[in-house]
Amino acid sequence: MEIRRFFVDSSDICNNVVTLTGDEFSHMVKVLRYKVGFKAVVCANDGIERLCTVKEIGKDFATLIIEQETVQDVKNAHVTLFAGLLKNSKLDFVVQKSVELGVDEIIPFTSHNCAETKFAKDRAEKIALEAAKQCGSAYLSKVCSLENFDEVLARFKDFDTVLFAYENEKKNRIKDCRIDGKNVALVVGPEGGFTPDETEKAKECGATIVTLGRRILRAETASIVSCALLLDHLGELDYE
Fold first, then answer.
1. Nearest to 135 by CA among 99, 84, 108
2. pTM (2 decimals)?
């Protein structure tokens, strides 16, 4: 049987024993039909893979014994993607692919050119979880609640570097940017991009305005391309 991957909080691990509850427990027992003695890989968002064996399955919990721990990934930077809300569930694609690339946090937002107003956080969290499992990540990206543009601007002070993608910027490429610190934010707009006024406000709040090249990309493409460019620039796509 294929050894499946499950995510827990660090508080769920004590004295070499993992306690699995909630949705991950339900997925293990009710969907995958795990039994006592089955093997699993457990991750706690710390870059470590824990090879475990199921010891006990209760009504709403399972306990697993850790047999081996392997450092699978070491992150040297924390990347947050602020993604403009998109029509027709296109943000689902952005969440999925940005998780695969290694983005740590995804914050959807509305701005002047947004045509969509609703965001299903629970759905996005499930997509993020499945993407993390599919790509073999030892980290589970966080999906946050929907914010407005002013709330996004107010967050800029919490980051060491903020990159703001704007289609009318012609020269400043991500790979040319100096990245100060390890807590980095990337801001990509919705269909229609950002207005000049929004871009000026972002600049006033400390953002560096960047270009993604001479072609106008679809919003969902722009998010994925910019994440890949930034993570590569930071060395986060390299092997250790």
1. 99
2. 0.93
